[in-house]
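Z., the sequence and structure:
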Amino acid sequence: MYLFNYNPDDLKYYHRKYQLLSDKKYYSDCERNILEDWTEGFVDRDNKIIIEFRDTFHSAFWEFYLHAVFKNNGFILDQSHNRPDFIITAPYLLNIEAVTSQIKQTGIPECQRNMNDILSMVTPPWAEPTFYSTLDESIVRLSNSINLKHNKLINEYSMCDWVQKSTPFALAVSSYDQVNYGCEYIYSMMALLYGLYFNIEDSSFSKKTFINKPGTESHIPLGLFLDNAYEDISGIIFSCTLTLGKLESLANSLAGIRNNLVYVIRHDPDDIGTPYKIQVVNQENPEYLEDGLFLFHNPKAKNKIPLEMFHSAGVYQLIYENDTIKNSPEIYPLIARISFDKNLERNFLPYIEQQLMLYNRRDLKDIMDHFRKNF
């Protein structure tokens, strides 16, 4: 699929991210080739995916990425029907509908991102004064997207002859719901799906049944996966870190550091002393395609997604049983990512060092001794 075959005179009319990817001053052939590879074998069943990619970007970008993940893990796709978006027939059966959550019409657009927004990508929740407002806005936007597709599942997709009632059905949700969407990690989904609301004081979760929609008295229900009304949704595949930085990170993993440095933060629950780790992405320490991808299983689903389906893929899975969250062992999930010009490392590194200290709630000297030893 040729994603960047366009009339140069028309480029100014396309989405800003498409413009950036097309410009060799900002992105190399390496990033574009990675994206082209994601689409290899992708069937454009509605004959509009290229238009969507150029005009609105995110929904097509998300579908291309999902296709790459499924292809990378040897899943067999039936692409003979135009809905749902993905029909996996082997080695397991799974139907998937993709959706993105977008910034509300009155929200701050991405084109107005500033340096503070970029730096906030590696700021821990307990050091971010707007964390709870960011969290609640994410919950609202994600709730809208999930309920939209849930209604389509009940009223449309379930009526299709090729959508078997015994086959698990998942939603794949990518968050672009506010200017700092990369900061929400799993916190918004934990609240929305399991009713577990994050506490910044001690990194614990409290049970909560609703939040107020920001600026209103309207209640947004939490704990959707504790309600039998959502039993048709077997699970939700989720990411809030599928950005252009993902392409930069994969390019650095493949070809080494070029123009931009990419740092990612991972969580290592086995390390009690410094559970949060900074990784400089390069060929020796790569970011993988599936990093930043999560699967939330629905404990009340009438058709369960087999755990084995995504275990070897490196997808971080969460299961809520008996008031306890079980997650994927031996996978250190990607929490956040920051990308910047390598010539600015001296400017960015002190801030990253400080945030690493805050993440681990430890003395800076102890954290930096670990940082210098490992990276």
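The mean pLDDT is 93. The longest helix spans residues 131-155.

Let me know what you think.
H.
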